[in-house]
Design goal:
30% of the residues lie in helices and 37% in strands. The protein is of the alpha+beta class.
């Protein structure tokens, strides 16, 4: 993900979530020195993304979405699998995220990738108010760890 992707990422974010990240928040994460992400393209059109932040040996998935026209095609799964595979090579040991309690489709996806629910943040989300469920995926140690 690069700065030129912010506008397209923001458009998908705005259409996908009741309390979306703003373009400034996305841009700030990319320029923070510990942020990043990946995108999915259909031809030259950005149709999905994962925004992340990296802290020591942990990766935090900040936001994930796929354009409505491209959902139910496995793009979110493919992006997350690619991201997880890259992290194993980068000596990341844990991948964390949080998701709305009611987002059963996302929760099923994360669980199918090996993420485990490890906690709950009461009232974490607004518009509407809802708990956030914390998930963690522990990656195997590499030989050089």
């Amino acid at each position: 993900m690069v700065a030129e992707d912010v506008e397209a990422v923001s458009a998908i974010e705005q259409a996908s979530f009741p309390s979306p990240w703003t373009p400034a928040m996305i841009a700030d994460e990319l320029t923070s020195g510990h942020g990043g992400g990946i995108v999915a393209l259909d031809d030259d059109t950005l149709v999905g993304y994962v925004v992340t932040s990296h802290i020591v040996d942990e990766l935090h998935i900040q936001t994930v979405a796929v354009a409505a026209t491209h959902r139910r095609r496995g793009l979110a799964r493919a992006m997350l699998l690619d991201l997880i595979q890259r992290q194993g090579r980068e000596k990341i040991r844990w991948v964390h995220l949080e998701v709305r309690d009611s987002n059963t489709a996302a929760r099923r996806l994360y669980e199918s990738l090996g993420f485990k629910a490890v906690g709950r943040r009461r009232g974490y989300y607004r518009n509407p108010a809802e708990d956030g469920v914390l998930y963690t995926l522990e990656l195997p140690a590499t030989d050089s760890d």
